[in-house]
Amino acid sequence: MESPGGDNLQVTMKCIVAACMLSVFAAPAIAAERTPGDARRLLMGGKYAEAAELYAPSAAKDPLAALGLARCRAAEGKLDAAVKVLSSAAGDHADLHAELARLALERGDYQTARTQTDTALKLDKDHLLARWIQAELHRLAGRLDEAQRRYAGLIDHYNSQEIRQAESIRWIGLAAGRYAAWNRLSEEFRTLVNDLYPAALKLEPDYWPAHYEAGQLFLAKYNQADAAGALQAALEINPNAAEVHAAMARLAVAGRDIPQAAASADRALQINPRLLSAWLVKADLAWANFRPRRTLQLLEQKALPLNPASEETLGRVAACYLLLDRVSEPEQSGRFTRLRNEVTDRNPLPGEFYFALAGALEQRNKQAEAIRFFRKAIEIMPRLLGPRSRLGLLYMRAGCESDARRQLRKAFDDDPFNVRVYNTLAVLDVLDTMKTIETEHVIIKCDGRRDALLGRYAAKHLEAIYPELCRQFGYRPPDKPLLEIFNRAGGQDGRAWFSTRMTALPYLGIAAACSGPMVAMVSPNEPKLQTQFNWARVLKHEFVHVVTLQQTNFNIPHWYTEGLAVYSEGSPRPQLWNELLLQRVPDGDLFDLRTINHGFSRPQSGKDWQMAYCQAELYVEFMLRRFGSGSQRRLLAAYAEGLTTTEAIRRVFGISVDQFQRKYVAYLKQVLSAMPRLRHPSQSSISQLLESHGEHPEDPDAAAELAYAYLRRKADREAGETARHALKLHPKHQLATYVIARLRLEAGHTQQAVALLEGCLDRHRPQPNVLNLLAGLKLKAQQYDEAAELYTLGQRLDTINPKWTKALVRVYLLADNRQKLSEVLGRLAEADADNLTVRKKLAEMALARRDYAAAANWANQAIHIDVLDLDMHRVFAEALVNRHNYLRAIEEFEVAVELQPEQPYLRFALADAYVQAKQPAKAKAALEALLQTAPDYPGAQLMLKTLEETDQP
């Protein structure tokens, strides 16, 4: 390879590695040799205070000790102290001037960095760190050809030199990495991570920066597994390497582990409060939480003072300006324009600035603006690898797959090690094999073999609901939204393809997602899918996002679009949500409008994530009931104007956010008051119950709780003694009686147990264990009416617990009470939108009792869970025939025949539906096909003959 200007610099990394290997047994760094007590080892291990103690006594006279002491100070963010140490001892020592240049470079003081670099190079023209900084200064000033020449010069110099220090390999590795990226020398990536940085570790096994730099390379390629391995290896050497913790935070962000990202960033800042990379993670987390003002505050008050010239930081600041200034064109923002001009005055080719700006806008789904600035970064600095790959991935999110393919192919040619690019090109290959269905309102892509039927039914469903959603929210997106359904392909399951479609990584743990213009979903027909789900409900949820995200130009906060989507599903709150409300509302353990987005983006637990959805839906419900149906559109309009939640609440409802929150919490308490629940036994540990009983020996409740805990531990003697003590204090104590009844049952005395339970049961406030056990004993004795009465009592007084309804199903099945069974199954179905079995049973029962409207409804709902269920298509068709909806019935019978062509009844029923619909030609064709496989099928010949006679003049 040749460098610009024809200097014929040899940059093959294998030569570098060979030189490294010659020096494996060379002496370690001189600083480590000359520092008492092996201070170098302590420094590399992150024991900065101990290392500083050893360096300090000789730092004034020994330049290498001064360098070590300065690095101890800098590692903890004490940069002024580090500069003072270096300046006091610098004299004519190139190492110290180069280190001063490095610190100045990191602080954005380019003039000082240049002065100190020049001084270092005058003292030692081949000083590696100084030469690396010199190249970086050219890059940051937009002199890219000169910067590249310097990078290549470093490589050329070290191709012919014996390398004795691990740190030397770091600077040559950084130069080689930059040169390789700019010149698309992708194979050099392997050399860096497999040969060069390992060579540094052979020279100095404790040199953790070698692992760190390898991890940074893997992280840039989105290779999360190898990045994690390299960074963890660095932390095993130095657990106090703040920059490694910041890199781990960035890795966690890439893996969507937001709590871990926050924890790693906090850890980095505990070690080094002045670490720019950690503050940028903190700002990015605020940005992801729809808090642009907080983001700008962090950037201006924490990040910029550390390096006012950082294009990574300034690009994020520019994004904040554009979002907060609510302009349709960037040039309309005065402060954005001023900032951009300041950046370009310093660097006429600020590709990194535009890249950071575009990346931040992409995170907030400002797709058009992000595309513009990714293109600008590519235009002014085509050497950068990142912008083109990110542009291609953004085109995928925007549903512009042809544009995405063009950009990603170029990006892959430039860098075949980028995991997200490679993955997304594989997704595009899968999409090429899919069948496309285009309707009046939507475009659907699906597996033409496995999901053709699902695609047809999804199209029909979306044609029904999408225009309705547009009317509901008062907005119709300008382009047809795209739905892509992923099934198994190329050895990967549908969930992996779906996840890769949305994130370019196969780790998304949900069934469907929306990017705004498009929706992707795992096929419910995927063979490895663990649980069934109601795909029709899921699509309605996601298409609410399609409308509301585009309606507000993606300014709608996460909580509101999710709340609208869940509310629009029309399903009752799940049991888990009700239980969470009962636990958290009395304790005040709730999200508010300032924190709820964290519940989606950085939940502390799965329950936090569920609670965020629950509260989001209840925010919508509260607004509609308290402020009327128009509040929904008014709030959407406020977000469409770019208002923040604080501003939008004030405008739409005329109150502050705090006042709004207080009214909302009052509404939650009303919701709870309408959810009666029986008091269940304590879940406290037995040690806690023993302590409580010891403190309150005359409290029958404390004794009964302890007795129940003993019973669960099979400590029958202790359970009986404690329960009898409780009954002495309260002769009809329900929980204590339950314990005794259970012991009687274990001894085989069922009638005694029943008598005890009947004697203590308080039908106004029944203890649930007593109620459930007594009902179960009545059921076992086939006393169905009494069992049903007890379970119904539990259902009425313990509304959020589905076990009572499920128990009633067993009662009515055994009693063969079909009417009551249908009622309780209906309640179960209403409570669980994904329950296929219950819906199938309801459809079959309704058809048997000739309730054809109910049969059609339940069969259709079952198909919305399993579109391949033959029985439900048959039941649906038969119900439709009996409702004289022959055309729709024909469609269902045709599907049933498609699913089971060998079933003669289905062909006969289809022929009959054709006759009823006055389509004799199709009826005859269906009968002829039937008679080919079942010539003796009853009635087929007669029907065909009748049709033929009818055709005669």
Name the features.
953 residues, globular, Serine Threonine Protein Phosphatase 5, Tetratricopeptide repeat, Zincin-like, five-stranded mixed β-sheet
Q: Helical proportion?
A: 55-70%
Chain oligomer state: single chain
Whole-number mean pLDDT: 92
What is the structural class?
mainly alpha
> How many strand units?
5
Q: CATH top level of the domain at 834-951?
A: Mainly Alpha
Report the biggest beta sheet as strand number plus sense, adding barrel if it closes.
5 strands, mixed
What name is given to the CATH topology of the domain at 834-951?
Serine Threonine Protein Phosphatase 5, Tetratricopeptide repeat
Distance between the termini: 89 Å
- Rg, Å, rounded: 35 Å
Number of helices: 51
- In CATH, the architecture of the domain at 834-951 is Alpha Horseshoe
The low-pLDDT segments are 1-35
Please indicate the percent range of residues in DSSP E strands (runs of 2 or more).
under 5%
CATH superfamily of the domain at 834-951: Tetratricopeptide repeat domain
**Which geometry do the CA atoms define?**
globular
Enumerate the strands of the largest sheet in spatial order, edge to edge or round the barrel.
1-2-3-5-4
